Amino acid sequence: MSSNYSLSICCLGAGYVGGPTMAMIAAKCPDIKVTVCDPNEARIAAWNSDTLPVYEPGLQQVVESARGRNLFFSTDVKEAIRHSEIIFVSVGTPTKTFGVGAGRAADLKYIESAARMIAEVAEGPKIIVEKSTIPVRTASAMITILQSNSKNGTFQVLSNPEFLAEGTAVEDLENPDRVLIGGEQTPEGLAAIEKVVSIYARWIPRDKILATNLWSSELSKLVANAFLAQRISSINSISALCEATGADVEEVARAIGHDSRIGPKFLKASVGFGGSCFQKDILNLSYLCEHFGLPEVAAYWQSVVTMNDWQKSRFSGRMVSDLFNTVTGKQIGILGFAFKKDTNDTRETPAISVCRDLLSEGAKVYVYDPQVSEVQIRAEVLGTETNPNLVVVKSALEACKGAHGVAVLTEWDEFKTLDFQKIHDDMLKPAFLFDGRNVLPHESLRTIGFRVFAIGKPF
Ligand SMILES: NC(=O)c1ccc[n+]([C@@H]2O[C@H](COP(=O)([O-])OP(=O)(O)OC[C@H]3O[C@@H](n4cnc5c(N)ncnc54)[C@H](O)[C@@H]3O)[C@@H](O)[C@H]2O)c1
Asked: Which of 203, 241, 395, 441 fits as disulfide partner to 28, beta carbons 3.0 to 4.6 Å?
């Protein structure tokens, strides 16, 4: 460890979680050397450049305040492990695509290979911190791998799941609702917890830092995401009932949200939830319940994902039926592709299934997103295939020009202030607008002449 620093820590994985969380620690603790390492050379080069691989408001400033001082990005994972006392593991834990549990269980291959690499390189005592979202009891597998493969390392494994939300990552890291740290309830485990607590305590009040046992911490992350996603699926299910009855889902949400037991947050109906976490974590939770002999609990949580899938296909189905039951050969503008505003993340974004549904109906789909590249949009929708009917354009006006219908799929602020009169003038008539995020001024759009469909709203 360099004598200039009081402590050296590193993080395996320079993704949406590893990069921002470590940048915040480095910014808040100038005496701690923080190395974020990842074998992905392009990603590390981007973290070391002016164009970060993750778009988050305020992140550039946080990174620049510490980079080169006590924040380093490197592809040399082994070197970082060797020189760090605390090793955060923030690698991906996607849903398995084959084998036992395919489509539901978490694929832990990156976690396992990280543990094997740590065991191979580590000398002396190390604290390993699970930051990735993992199935409950993963720590025991990590401990077994570490202890069975290390010559002279000793290990404490902690769970410190990350609760940041993309789009507000910097705000969430600066002022989190809570930080959760789980560890073994032994003197060594408690000492390791205290060591990690003392890092966060530099800027987060101690009463917001919760210490628990390992399994509670691991499980709490899955449960938090399951509860959040459940609220979205619940209000989305009600949006369908509102459309059928003439109730307004925003009025219903406001009415129930005033109940302090329910609360107003996360009650916004939409085309569906996306992002890399909600679906995968619920599927994983449901799989775990089955594994532990609780099929009814598994089915309960699985229904949250089923409702989300239905909401997405209900939206594209509605587009087709409003457009006189055919979109074949028609141009459809798609405004927004990211799974939410203020991020360039497109994993599991509802836009993927809406675009695919429209393409399969023979539509020409013109997509615009302010932060997502053409390559990324094509890869998400088409994989390795090509389809000339998918066109990625550079402005909202371009996406709408000549279109029969336009759908808003991400709530980017810039869509609220578009020149809708011009858009209407440039579209074929009747001009249809499908607001999948309920962010547009529907009444004034109707005055212009649009036929507007909005989620859970009366017509
Ligand atoms: N994205 C979110 O909003 C969010 C929020 C909370 C928790 N999480 C969880 O955090 C974890 C990471 O998510 P993410 O979105 O940052 O993933 P990501 O895919 O953006 O990044 C993971 C990175 O880990 C790297 N990696 C794989 N094996 C490695 C190894 N052995 N050593 C070093 N690096 C390695 C990969 O190259 C990749 O760049 C997941 O478990 C996820 O569920 C994500």
From this structure: 203
